[in-house]
Hints:
Blueprint: H1 4-17, H2 30-37, H3 41-53, E1 57-60, E2 64-67, H4 85-99, H5 106-113, H6 127-139, H7 152-169, H8 186-200, H9 206-237, H10 241-247, H11 249-257, H12 263-275, H13 281-300
Antiparallel strand pairs: 1-2
Amino acid sequence: MIPPYQRIVTEIRRRIAEGELAPGDRVPSARQVAREWDVALATATKALTTLRQEGLVEALPRVGTTVAAARPRPAAAGEAPELTRERVVRAAIEIADAEGLSALSMRGIAARLGVAAMSPYRYVTGKGDLVLMMADAVFGEARLPPHPPAHWRTRVEVGVRALWALHRAHPWLAQLGPLTRPLMVPNLLTCSEWVLAGLDRLGLGATATFDLNVLLYSHVLGIAVHLERQAHAESVTGMSDEEWMAGQARALDRLTSSGASHPTYARIMGSFAETGYDLDLDALFELGLRSILDGLEARVA
């Protein structure tokens, strides 16, 4: 079932595409939208926010929300490549890889491809549809060997490391949704099948096998979710992780000096004063994967 806000977005998008609303025209306010579609004010606000994120409308001070001006198509030498769904998806992936999922908009994709602002809508219905296509395309890049390893653990390790490599290359993947609402895309199922086939050899039953598959996937997500957060923190603060930590030295010293209350923490932090400590996400991923599989191996021994 299509959410109410999405129906509003689709209708206003149609009015813009068909010229009923031209660049510079006022878009109905949130209260007008709420009355016209008989929805809550929050739903109307979400619809207008979605349109702004897609670059179709813009909020102007003392004016209100208007249809955004179309960005002129840049001149190109020779014939421009034909616009296809694959090109739209690939451009979206490039934007998300470079700037994060929050920077993704249909208008930005059109600008990257050098086409009219509404052109991508001929191939995708909206940002939600596009993100699913992006995820499916990226999961299709998984590098899995043509001949699966014979041992269950080796097969599982290969599959989980392939997932980690994808999330490493495309950090926005970890931002797409909770485990309780899995992505319904074919190529993710292909990756899951690889890991499930290895776990299935242990004979633990359907529920335990699937739970372990989810646990391993959540381990990938749990580490990968910090990749985009790290990039965002650096762009906002203008500091690298090392520079930020250097600025926290005084606060860390205060915490460490409370040795009576937190003796283990104080002792470990004290040892780092000489040896140093580098939080390596790749090493953390490997430690977690090894710990999970060691525990599983001991369980089935």
